[in-house]
Amino acid sequence: MRAIAMSDEKQTDAADLNRREFFVKLGLGSLGIAAAGTVAFGYQFLSPNVLYEPSPIINAGRPESYPLDSVTLDVNSRIYIIHSKEGFFSLSAVCTHLGCLTVWKPDLGIIACPCHGSKFKQDGEKIEGPAPKPLPWKRVWLSDDGDLMVDRSTDIRPMEFVRV
Amino acid sequence: MAKPIPQYFDEVRETRVWRSIFRSGTGASTLHRALAIQQNVFLHLFSTKVRRRMLSFSATWYLGTLTFAAFLVLVATGVLLMLYYHPSVPQAYADTKDLQFVVSSGLFLRNLHRWSAHAMVFLVFAHMFKVFYRGAYRAPREFNWVIGIVLLLVTLLLSYTGYLLPWDQLAYWAITVGSNIASAVPVMGNKIHFLLLGGNAVNANALLRFYVLHCMILPLTAIFLIAIHFWRIRKDGGLYAHQSEPATLRAQAAPKEAR
């Protein structure tokens, strides 16, 4: 080790060491840029640009098909359509803990998650369980044809009812 | 007059074809036996000579070897299962049922794959505890302990990614829950979740990604790390040695000399 160090010291005076240093830096710099490019390329490649996932907007059908004081779970779109005295609203049926599908228990009047036992009130408010947040309210409106529409991608503040 | 059987083996070893493959030559001398290990691409990872006592059952309970054996069974059965399994949403579950009920020996292979997977996870943990309580993680074997921890993670990831492939309710909800745990990572959690599943929900992309991870990326990673793990046994002074053994003392001194 010492012998190599000494020969390096000797070469410090030589004119071509600066050139060597320059090329080493140039080489390392290019490798760095190439590595950064690879990371960026890899990230872009791994993120799909087009998703063949179902549309977030759901046509929930005629409001008349939901009787007063009813909680209806749509398993496929993973939302509840709830017809309460104040009006219609929609809750996400996906548990805020780890994403399981919750279920409405009519005899207990609560929404319960089968995976880890979280419980929610009919308006989405958390009663107990590991879930960190209440079930979010989803935007609901009436289409021109009078159908109930739900946008699953848009959370709204609770207690915004749609009256028909 | 029939020749004794060992003589037939010797004759095969003398042939030109054999000699062209195994160059160490025939003979029972210590040199020949050492060369046979040293010149073999697989065996050269290991020491050419070991003390009989290091291979005693009580030193390791052979847990590392058993883990590797489980891994080999998993590779062999896994490759065969791949011949009947399509990683696509309409077919994955049907293929799994076909393997269960239609394919000859499919039930046996699938069950063997499943039980070996359970066994491997158990053996990896048992191996880790044995190494821990034996104190074999200490110098000069610290780095091999680290590789072992990474191999533990790879084993668990192999188990996890394989769990989705039957595409039944158990698989679907287990992966939904498991991937949502990844979104709990601060700042980049949702990005990791998105990249892992190739989308926002467990779907066709997620199934394909988990299949590629399970059948290509993770097994190759495991093989790569296992090779280093075995090679380092030799480099770190053998499988296990008593504290007073000269080789151990020399190996322990080695890092200090390099400083």
Structural overview:
The complex is a heterodimer of chains A (164) and B (259). With 164 residues, chain A is an alpha+beta fold. Chain A has helices at residues 2-12, 16-46, and strands at residues 57-61, 70-74, 79-84, 87-92, 103-105, 110-112, 119-120, 126-128, 137-142, 148-156. Chain A folds into two domains: 2-46; 57-156, Rieske [2Fe-2S] iron-sulphur domain (Rieske Iron-sulfur Protein), CATH 2.102.10.10. In chain A, the strands form two sheets. In chain A, strands 1-10-9-4-3-2 form a six-stranded antiparallel beta sheet, with no helix packed on it. A four-stranded antiparallel beta sheet of chain A has the order 5-6-7-8, with no helix packed on it. In chain A, a hairpin with a 5-residue loop joins strand 7 (119-120) and strand 8. Chain B has twelve helices and no strands. Chain A binds chain B through residues 43, 46-48, 51-53, 97-100, 115, and chain B through 173, 176-177, 179-181, 194-195, 198-201, 203-205.
